[in-house]
Amino acid sequence: MKNYRYITAIMAFALCFTVKAQTDSIVRVLAIGNSFSQDAVEQYLWELANEAGVKMIIGNAYRGGQGFQSHWIDVTEANNTFEYRKVVGGKRSNTPRMALADIITDEPWQYITFQQVSQESGLTSTFEPYLTELIGYTQGLQTNPDAVYGYHQTWAYSHDSTHGGFANYGNRQDVMYDSICQAVQYATAMHPELSFVVPSGTAIQNARTTWLGDNMNRDGYHLDLKMGRYTAACAWLETITGISPVGFSYRPDGVDFLTAHTCQVAAHEAVMHPFECTVLDREGFPAVNSIVPTGLVKLNFGADHTSDPAWNDITPALRTHADIHDSNMNPTGILLTVTDDFGGTNRNGAAYTTTKMLMPAEVSQSCFWGYATGKFGNGGPRQSATLRLSHLNPELEYEFTLFSSRDKCQDLRQTTFVVQGEDTQADALQSANNAGETVVLKDIRPTADGQVTLTVMPGSRNTSPNHFYYLNAMTIKAK
Q1: pTM (2 decimals)?
Q2: Confidence band (pLDDT; 50, 70, 90) for 379?
Q3: Are 117 and 65 in contact (CB under 8 A)?
Q4: Is residue 242 situated within a structural domain?
Q5: Do both 107 and 179 map to the same domain?
Q6: Domain of 412: which CATH number?
Q7: For 133-164, what is each residue's pLDDT tens digit?
Q8: Which of 251, 274, 388, 440 could disulfide-link 255, Cβ–Cβ 3.0 to 4.6 Å?
Q9: Based on the domain organization, do 353 and 314 belong to the same domain?
Q10: Is there a contact between 111 and 28 (Cβ–Cβ < 8 Å)?
Q11: 187: containing domain
């Protein structure tokens, strides 16, 4: 693995705007943006800077889903609809209904960035005259005569995004990424006062070339709450301070060392090459997984952690789980992503079971659940929930054993499981009061790119009024 800790002295000199940041007692950074700046700076950036020994105050002038034109209208009409998100001493605060002027003058900001709304981030025809007006307005108000201005490069959507704005780029990730790069270069050429670029978009694109794949988003466009946001924060850290995050020990809860390292390198390479995707298929695990698990891969679904280390805890705290080991505690390189959410979790499965899965009570009791009909609790009905297993060894076949259980039922709660790789198999299980039955789906070969999807839904013999369905545990056997 590469070992970057600090950029070279030559590059530090070339990025002269970072020198002041490394010598000031407090670095003040303001992003003028929306939910994409929220993803990038409101979490993890302060923690990374803290490890680097840099005291930082972070501000985000936030208006969700808004860009240059809308921001300028807010200013000229004095609508004062900005939210002032601020991180001081690692503590986050939010003040709603603020004027942009009050945010700009709140601190003597050293670094101020602008960004376009995501669906228009690659469309230069949407930039002017609004970007020019915003820059001039900000320059006229800022209280730090040495303030430096930059551009935050946002990211392309995931390849399967359903965002309506994806149509601007033919629903193609590569076209959107290239368009964003060209648009950012256009903006900086038109505005020499924009003296730096934070390449979050290239950092995310780099990460997609690694074993982590196209799992950097949580909904097709916003970043994954853990590794996606962490990657963007790493890009911000190095751009602002000149300090590479590679080798840093700080990482968010649920992000293992290998995933963090991969994100760090993706961000570092983006800072080195802001408008060029770097293929990193040898960082972390190889892009094509050749690992043969030495034992069963055991997955425990629910909100709680099991005391048995052989079971991997799949909790709603993470959308993508990367640190998955087999029962001999060897890494598998397998990723599990919840692509279509369940409704919630509970601990109402059978405590004592007689299956061959040999589950501890804490595994058999905990579950993910959903419902397909009517109204139950605070969430709406979902016809099904879907998990994607990716970075599987494409040369292997897999056997899936699935268990679902809901204790003390007076109705039937049949759950159907559909597993799809190169072929599709399905079977159903009566979850109501189940303590001894499982579904076994054999000889499943992944797609050529190492993927298998699991869809969970109510079965045809489900008589519960809300058509509840469950997933408590799963084991995967490779052969």
Answers
A1: 0.93
A2: confident
A3: yes
A4: yes
A5: yes
A6: 2.60.120
A7: 999 999 999 999 999 999 999 999 999 999 99
A8: 251
A9: yes
A10: yes
A11: 9-272
